[in-house]
Design brief:
By secondary structure, the protein is α+β, with helices and mostly antiparallel strands. The protein is built from 3 helices and 5 strands; from the N terminus they run E-E-E-H-E-E-H-H. The chain has a 5-stranded antiparallel β-sheet, covered by helices on one side. The longest helix has 25 residues. The chain is elongated and about 90 Å long. It starts with a strand and ends in an 8-residue tail after the last helix. About 11% of the residues have low confidence.
């Protein structure tokens, strides 16, 4: 996973971008175009996977743009599902008996409630 951070400054009608700790530099009249150029430059330096980007305006004449190449991409509820096995096989094995005990308690309560009596008989 590679992270590219760029500092953008506007001077006149031109936006210029310099990589925070690197050699990549670009310029363009619009923020949209400069973002596209910076993503292409980041991919040229490291094309190891998915691309995520973030653009934050700091002032009317400055901004920060970050490009993340590679790494994990989280979608929806996948995080919870992926986090469960992280504890290892022992954690998963311990969780199963706890769930069975809970189910047994629910069944016992249902048996106690069914005495064959009704308020409307």
């Amino acid at each position: 996973m590679a992270v590219f951070t760029f500092i953008l400054r506007k001077s006149g009608d031109e936006w210029t971008a310099e990589q925070y700790s690197g050699d990549i530099e670009e310029s363009s009249p619009s923020t949209f175009d400069i973002q596209r150029k910076l993503v292409k430059a980041a991919l040229a330096a490291d094309s190891s996977g998915a691309v995520q980007s973030s653009f934050s305006v700091v002032s009317p004449s400055s901004a920060v743009f970050q490009v993340v190449v590679g790494g994990a991409v989280f979608v929806g509820g996948g995080v919870a599902a992926a986090a469960a096995p992280a504890g290892g096989a022992a954690s998963a094995g311990e969780a199963a008996p706890a769930a069975e005990k809970k189910e047994e308690k629910v069944e016992e309560e249902e048996e106690d409630d069914d005495l064959g009596l009704s308020l409307f008989d």
